[in-house]
Design a protein that fits this description.
Number of strands: 0
Number of domains: 1
Structural class: mainly alpha
Order of helices and strands: HHHHHHHHH
Largest sheet: none
Number of helices: 9
């Protein structure tokens, strides 16, 4: 795998995303409308645990909507063409990096909208922000690999939902736990064990993606 391959593939995805801006617009519309519905349902600021749970549920489904198209929107002929140009590890790493950038932007926008409607109860904003960025990277890594696996199935959207839930659930529990600490004003030292678990999950997912994707790519 060469860095030039990864950067070229990321540039290709950026150009395609710019040409299909309606897709990202739909995800942003989903974020805003869901937060607004939550605002109407809870009449403003909810309690801390509800605020935290709502934020991560909205962000999770936004991530699924944004990342599921990574491989599912591309045709078999495109995959065959890419196979002649770039290595399998280059493809998966480029996809993960691009989706991580995309999700970081969406999560920051989602946090801004969420705080605007639901209030800002975050006591330790720096811890919450670091946890959120790590969470978006983890979502990108897990869901990109699942999208690659699901693209080989006819019922790809159903398969992605089935595979995604058990893999994302442990990650989501860690993210919610660290966010709870941030809402209570805890320090980085208090959240350090959970942050280590989160980083470990990201590293494991990246390693598995680089090990397993070449076999999927050959099919």
């Amino acid at each position: 795998m060469q860095l030039s391959e990864v950067t070229a593939f990321i540039r290709k995805d950026l150009v395609l995303e710019w040409r299909q801006r309606a897709t990202i617009g739909g995800v942003v519309l989903y974020l805003v409308s869901t937060v607004f519905v939550a605002y109407l349902a809870f009449d403003g600021l909810a309690d801390l645990r509800t605020w935290n749970a709502l934020f991560w549920l909205i962000l999770l489904f936004a991530a699924i909507n944004a990342i599921q198209k990574s491989f599912l929107q591309e045709k078999e002929s495109q995959h065959l063409y890419y196979y002649t140009l770039i290595s399998a590890r280059g493809v998966i790493n480029a996809k993960i990096f691009y989706n991580a950038l995309l999700m970081t932007g969406l999560s920051l926008a989602g946090l801004f909208v969420f705080m605007m409607f639901m209030g800002n109860p975050i006591a330790s904003f720096s811890l919450f922000l670091v946890n959120m960025i790590l969470g978006t990277i983890a979502f990108a890594a897990v869901l990109t690999l699942i999208s690659a696996i699901a693209s080989r199935s006819r019922n790809n959207f159903t398969l992605m939902a089935i595979l995604g839930f058990p893999l994302v659930l442990p990650l989501l529990l860690v993210l919610i736990r660290v966010s709870d600490l941030a809402l209570e004003g805890a320090s980085f030292a208090t959240a350090f064990p959970d942050l280590v678990i989160l980083l470990s999950l990201i590293c494991i997912t990246l390693i598995l993606s680089n090990l397993l994707f070449p076999y999927i790519w050959k099919e």
